[in-house]
Design goal:
This protein is α+β, with helices and mostly antiparallel strands. The chain contains 13 helices and 17 strands. Helix 11 runs parallel beside helix 12. The longest helix is centred in the middle third of the chain and has 41 residues, at about 280-320. It binds adenosine-5'-triphosphate and magnesium ion.
């Protein structure tokens, strides 16, 4: 589906600033849809021929939709939708007309011109919002519905006057509270004139016993959240509804997110909406996850340090040994421990269940090249990428690679040595090949008793439930193929 930017750039004469305005409108108009219990469609004037193109669409979370299909991208010729034309030509919100029955349900249509405020310049009209309410399930309006609808109409007025969306409001990373999470309406003095049941519950959990309606929200909130720390300035601004801002307040173990939307209609502040969401559970889970992550990271870090200590000890002992065989054996052990340490080092940076194995592979490859055969004139290379692998696979795979590279360098003395990753969705297929001396006569993997390939086999077939084949390579040298089943990747 084309994006808002695509459509605007390709089909309209709107400029970059206009597009920014529409982006911030669309990032915030869920509010208008929810308060209106209505579908919203944003129509922009088509380049040249006249007519309209739908560039964005929003459904209400508070009521039934009118449009089950996607409208974005569709075009309306001039005259086809007279309400849009009128709103555009007369620069005003249009409400007239009887319910439209063409979709099988009664739908009330309204159109709102979108105006962009231009500092020191003439305001620009950019587009039209079509607001369609499905009347089939219209309930007898309650206090809640009347407040929502009144607030929707104030917001619509603000859109037409270029006062909504709020320019310069910082983008919010966490999801802002929505209408259904809890809503308060304040009058000009910051007193609550309406509190939705959810909003009231949130304040009860913050410790409020008195009535909320009639109370001055700023003062009430400040009293509830009183602490030794200096008063949070945002709190007073937000809770009094004076600026378009968000804040979080905490009291009695409850954390509540507040978002203020000042209502400025006809040039004057008439009050504000405050959206409220209880985020106690969300924040608690975030904190838990954060400490859990940090703990796992720390454990990997310590494992890595311990492994490095072990490697250092073995290296020390190897140096003191006179018997060459014994020394070699210890040096190999150093290498094996080292490749496990590399994996833990990577995991200690990224404690997730998945790690970027290319990084690990490159370090294992570099280490094999350095440690095992300083005299060998070959630099092992990686071809293709492993990508992101489950950490459960990373350790055994890194160890297996170490052994295979070591073998090729030690026994093959090749001129070329490569680790090739062959792409595959469900299996990881890796080929380690060299152009060296080749396997000894009568080599048989099953009856080989030396340690290196035994380790590889245990890791690949046992731990990773994969397959292993060691064969002579066509044209000389040796090739080893690993095929490892992958669990379904990161979601
Ligand atoms: N790439 C290769 N080129 C030539 N010969 C190989 C290659 N890989 C393995 N071999 C042969 O297979 C034998 C078994 O290898 P394996 O890794 O099990 O033991 P090793 O390397 O001799 O000893 P260890 O790895 O325990 O120090 C090797 O001794 C070698 O003869
Ligand atoms: Mg070996």
């Amino acid at each position: 589906m084309p994006t808002l930017s695509d459509l605007v750039v390709r089909h309209t004469a709107l400029d970059e600033d206009d597009l920014d305005w529409l982006h911030s409108l669309v990032s915030d108009w869920q509010l208008l849809a929810d308060l209106s219990f209505a579908d919203l469609i944003l129509w922009a004037p088509l380049l040249g021929e006249g007519g309209w193109i739908a560039i964005a669409q929003m459904r209400p979370t508070t009521g039934p939709t009118v449009y089950h299909d996607d409208i974005v991208g569709s075009v309306a010729a001039k005259g086809e939708r007279p309400l849009i034309d009128t709103a555009w030509n007369e620069r005003r919100i249009c409400r007239e007309g009887d319910p439209d029955w063409s979709t099988g349900v009664p739908v009330r249509e309204e159109t709102i011109p979108v105006r962009r405020a231009v500092p020191d310049g003439e305001a620009r009209f950019l587009a039209i919002i079509q607001r369609s309410t499905n009347l089939s399930s219209a309930r007898t309006p309650s206090r809640l519905e009347l407040t929502y609808l009144q607030s929707a109409s104030d917001l619509a007025q603000m859109v037409a006057e270029g006062r909504f969306p709020f320019s310069g409001e910082e983008p919010i990373l966490v999801r802002s509270p929505r209408v259904g999470d809890g809503l308060l309406r304040l009058d000009r003095a910051g007193r609550v004139t309406y509190a939705s049941p959810n909003a009231l519950s949130a304040y009860r959990r913050l410790g409020l016993h008195a009535d909320l309606v009639g109370a001055e929200l700023g003062r009430v909130t400040a009293t509830l959240c009183y602490s030794d720390e200096p008063i949070n300035e945002d709190l007073m601004i937000v809770a009094s509804g004076r600026a378009a801002k968000e804040t979080e307040v905490e009291s009695g173990g409850t954390i509540v997110q507040l978002r203020a939307i000042p209502l400025i209609v006809g040039g004057g502040r008439i009050g504000a909406l405050v959206l409220i969401r209880d985020v106690t559970e969300l924040r608690r889970r975030e904190r838990e996850l954060m400490t859990k992550d940090a703990t796992i990271r720390e454990i990997h870090h310590r494992v890595k340090n311990n492994l490095q200590t072990v490697a250092a000890l073995l290296r020390l002992q190897a140096r003191r040994l006179q018997v060459p065989e014994g020394r070699e054996a210890l040096e190999e052990a150093v290498r094996r421990v080292g490749s496990i340490a590399i994996v833990h080092e990577t995991l200690s940076h990224a404690p997730e269940e998945f790690v970027d194995f290319d990084d690990i592979a490159d370090r294992v490859i570099a280490m094999a090249g350095e440690v095992s055969a300083p005299e060998a004139a070959v630099t092992p290379r990686r071809v293709g990428g492993f990508g992101v692998l489950p950490s459960l696979i990373a350790t055994p795979l890194a160890m297996a690679l170490t052994e295979l590279l070591q073998n090729a360098l030690q026994h093959g003395r090749p001129r070329r040595l490569q680790v090739v990753v062959e792409p595959g969705a469900e299996r990881l297929n890796v080929l380690v090949w060299d152009d060296g001396q080749g396997l000894p006569e009568g080599f048989d993997l099953d009856s080989s008793t030396s340690l290196g390939l035994q380790i590889v086999r245990t890791l690949v077939e046992g731990e990773l439930s994969g397959r292993l084949a060691v064969e002579p390579r066509e044209g000389g040298g040796t090739e080893v193929r690993l095929s490892i089943p992958l669990p379904s990747g990161p979601a």
